[in-house]
Specification:
4-stranded antiparallel sheet
């Protein structure tokens, strides 16, 4: 088969470029009416861009003029009014602060004067006390009212001995000072006695304990209500009964667990056990379950 025969049988579109050209021309003719509208839109966009450029140039020129005016040191009227108002406000604030400082200065002067007057009074009192030391010593003896009686006696005994030695030395010089020393000793003894009595009347700290007792019955037929009444019937000075409850032990038997508060100096655990176990018809034994100091 020759090439001519092969090409004649092959399905090839040789005229496609011609048809493409014709199609392009057809679409150009149909779209030719919309092109002037596109040109008008483009022209309006260019006009807007030009106007924006002019506005930017004008704003830049105005900014330059304002900067030049500020650099020349000639503020506008609004700026002058703002500066004057701010300066007036600053002056008013300064005047108020000056007035407040004057008032504080006046009050401080008054406080200083009061302190000087008090200091002068203290100096006068100190001078008077230095002139009469014998009359001051009795007053200083009970100067520690919150210490124990033994320490007070130890602290006051040393000044008494020192004063007796001073009196022995002064007897050689002043023959008429014995009456004052006797009065001072009597005053000291009287005040020490009053302090000891006051200390004795003051109540001391009472030591207390919290005890939890386990009271066990004989069997499950024991009346636990009657058993509790028997336990609470034990009364003594310094004994206070508290709450109670029934605790199961086993085989239907329950024990009574009762709390109490006692004073250690007046009531002990041995005494409680002896008094409670006296009720032999209901109580088998008593045990101390807990013991705490309060």
């Amino acid at each position: 088969m020759s090439s001519v025969d092969f090409l004649s049988q092959e399905k090839i579109w040789f005229d496609k470029p011609r048809y493409d050209e014709a199609e392009r021309r057809f679409y150009e003719r149909t779209n030719g009416s919309s092109q002037p509208m596109q040109d008008v839109g483009a022209n309006s966009i260019l006009q807007d861009i030009a106007r924006a450029r002019e506005n930017i140039q004008k704003s830049l020129a105005g900014l330059k003029t304002t900067l030049c005016n500020r650099g020349s040191g000639q503020p506008s009227l609004s700026q002058q009014s703002q500066l004057s108002s701010s300066s007036a406000a600053d002056q008013g604030e300064i005047i108020c602060r000056i007035k407040s400082l004057e008032l504080e200065n006046h009050s401080l002067h008054k406080v200083v004067d009061d302190l000087r007057a008090a200091l002068s009074k203290l100096e006068c009192r100190v001078s008077v006390l230095e002139k009469s030391p014998a009359a001051v010593t009795p007053v200083t003896s009970p100067s520690v009212p919150y210490t124990n009686g033994t320490t007070v006696q130890q602290k006051t005994s040393a000044p008494v001995k020192d004063e007796e030695e001073d009196d022995d030395d002064d007897d050689d010089i002043d023959l008429f000072g014995s009456d004052d020393d006797e009065e001072a000793d009597k005053l000291k003894e009287q005040r020490l006695k009053e302090y000891a009595e006051k200390k004795a009347k003051k109540p001391g700290i009472i030591a207390k304990s919290s005890i939890l007792l386990d009271v066990k019955p004989w069997d499950d037929e024991t009346d636990m209500v009657k058993l509790e009444e028997c336990v609470r019937s034990v009364q003594a000075d310094g004994l206070l009964w508290g709450t109670s409850k029934l605790v199961p032990v086993g085989y239907g038997i329950k024990k009574l667990q009762i709390a109490c508060v006692v004073e250690d100096d007046k009531v002990g655990t041995d005494m409680l056990e002896e008094e409670i176990t006296k009720f032999e018809d209901y109580i088998q034994s008593v045990d101390v379950a807990a013991f705490n100091k309060i």
